[in-house]
Amino acid sequence: MQTRPLGTGGPQVLPLALGCAGMSDHTAPADEADAIATIRTALDAGVTLLDTADFYGMGHNEDLVRRALRAGDREKALLSVKFGGLRGPDGSFVGIEGRPAHVKNALAYSLRRLDTDHIDIYRPARLAPDTPVEDTIGAISELVRAGYVRHVGLSEVGPETIRRAHAVHPICDVQIEYSLFSRDPEANGILDTCRELGIGVTAYGILAHGLLTGTYRHPAGDDPRAHWLPRFHPDNLATNLALVERLRPLADARGISVAQLATAWVIAQSPERGTVVAVLGTRRPHRIEEALSAADVALSDADLRTIDEAVPADAVAGTRYAAPLMALLDSERGPSPAVGARN
Fold first, then answer.
1. What are phi and psi of 238, to 5 degrees?
2. For labelling, which of 54, 94, 199, 225 has a CA lying 20 to 30 Å from the CA of 234?
3. Which domains does the chain have, with CATH numbers?
């Protein structure tokens, strides 16, 4: 596989990245040995972009990534770190922070936990409600000039916020949920804005939190994901699993799994959509090889049209998050002035 630049002036990466959140924050505890093996398997296979956050497991995830990096791994690993999610001692999320003092304080702790002298891509996890994005990005820009950060990223923000942030400092990439089941970035201008400005896209949730694996079935009892992911709610699940079944013959015809087809679809959005990198969220080493095989699947324009006909953008039942979580997403707001904008 060929590498591609992650945005204008950004680092060279494979079309696949590894998302580490599930190794620390998940519905079931992760086996640390498997998690560490997964990170090492990815690096050995050439997957260099590792996505983490200081609030994943309240620092546990960064510590896990540090322990997974062997001698020589730090030189090839690209660490993408999110900050700004505030958590209470019970693990609950209690707010979003983006003040410059917090940015610098959070970075100091991340550098210590990761045992490194720089972060490759540093990004606010969400738009802070009471801090202009210019102030947050300005603080990261200072850290770039000081050598502590190499590139600046964004996450879950809309076109207006992207433009305002990019005017302060060049943005490397925008992290956004994007999959066959989450097509809003196509309609709300996020992908078009990124392509126009030369900003990469790191797409997470590429398997719709498990729905697009092709192996998920109706749970025997309550699935805890249904409480915060409406697409797993019983009112919506049957419709969404029926859509997955429409993909199965298309995958079978190519000798691949539904998950591989869904991954290949995301990767195929480059270059039409600009540089799009699929973030695989897994804690199992064998999933790395499966995903890399998906990156080798060439989907023609006719293939993409067939997939779109099988799963139309508006056919998925339920929003991607529960209403309180959706309200926190600048990426889901319409083209109105962003919260915290300067007068």
1. -60, -45
2. 94
3. 4-332 (3.20.20.100)
